[in-house]
Design goal:
By secondary structure, this protein is an alpha+beta fold. It has ten helices and nine strands. It is 47% helix and 12% strand. The chain has a seven-stranded mixed sheet with strand order 3-4-5-7-6-8-9. Helix 3 runs parallel beside helix 10, helix 4 runs antiparallel to helix 5 and helix 4 crosses helix 8. The longest helix has 36 residues.
Length: 298
């Protein structure tokens, strides 16, 4: 049986010669055309997946590696434990001396401790300092990640560790929703082993390197906890129990009551009871407020 030669399908657009293609008339020609199209699409998808993988890999490399819970790896958190200073019984034993002993002398000034304040908020610093700050943050918030790893880290090293101020972490979950809830509970559960702040740093690192869906999965949290030297099974069981969900609700209420509408927001207090928004979260602003409060306290 005779076959017809292929015909050129013309395009009405001006550059038709570049856009024109030949339509296969025989079954074999059509199959060959489909095969070429399929291969081209598959190659495009493969290149896209490889490129995305390389981006994730290099972001992970730039974000650093997981650190073990120790004073050597986390000198900015190497201070005595004060435990639960609130009336919320769910925090009893959390960040307390009995759950972990520091493996080195305190890196903070006398009076600088870590624990949970009267609002059930994790804090680090001197409870009797003339000025107190809290940051309202979400582990899934990219600006929060930048603040935690930048200005906040610098401020805590230079002013919180020497007793001039205290700093707390109010955890909200509006950005990442269920993923942020999992991450926040993981940090609180790590606090039961004296590692709230260390786990917080790890969660921010993971979020900035691999995205929250992977970073805040229970399997990844378990792997990180193992690498940090924590009891990962206890942390996973603790997160699964959802024992801290009501505490997270109280954190959200605290933020809303103090006019917080976005993250990260820094609140300031001179008595630890009455809070207001700081003029800015910039390092220079926090320093100016702290130095002024310490001068007035002399």
């Amino acid at each position: 049986m005779a076959t017809h030669d292929t015909a050129e399908k013309q395009s009405p657009i001006p550059w038709r010669q570049r856009a024109s293609f030949r339509v296969g008339k025989t079954r074999r020609q059509r199959q060959e055309q489909y095969r070429r199209h399929f291969n081209a699409l598959a190659l495009t998808l493969l290149i896209t997946v490889v490129a995305a993988g390389l981006v994730v890999y290099f972001n992970y490399r730039e974000a650093g590696a997981v650190k073990a819970v120790s004073c050597e790896e986390f000198p900015e958190y190497c201070v005595p434990f004060a435990g639960n200073l609130s009336t919320n019984p769910v925090l009893d034993g959390n960040e307390s001396e009995g759950v972990r002993t520091l493996d080195a002398d305190s890196h903070g000034a006398p009076g600088v401790v870590r624990g949970f304040n009267q609002n059930g908020v994790a804090f680090l610093g001197d409870p009797n300092a003339p000025i107190h700050f809290v940051t309202v943050s979400d582990y899934a918030c990219s600006h929060c990640q930048d603040f935690h790893q930048g200005d906040l880290k610098r401020f805590m090293e230079n002013y919180v560790m020497d007793g001039q101020a205290s700093f707390g972490f109010v955890m909200t979950t509006g950005t990442g929703q269920v993923y942020s809830q999992t991450a926040s509970q993981a940090a609180l559960c790590a606090g039961e082993q004296g590692a709230f702040w260390e786990m917080s740093s790890e969660l921010f690192r993971l979020a900035s390197s691999m995205g929250i869906q992977s970073a805040f999965s229970l399997s990844q949290i378990k792997d990180s906890a193992d690498s940090m030297g924590l009891d990962s099974e206890d942390i996973v069981d603790c997160v699964s129990s959802a024992k801290y969900l009501n505490l997270l609700t109280s954190h959200t209420t605290f933020a809303q009551d103090n006019g917080v509408t976005g993250t990260p927001t820094v609140l300031i207090s001179y008595d630890g009871v009455n809070w207001s928004k700081a003029p800015s979260r910039a390092y220079e602003t926090l320093v100016a407020l702290t130095e002024a409060a310490n001068r007035n306290a002399q």
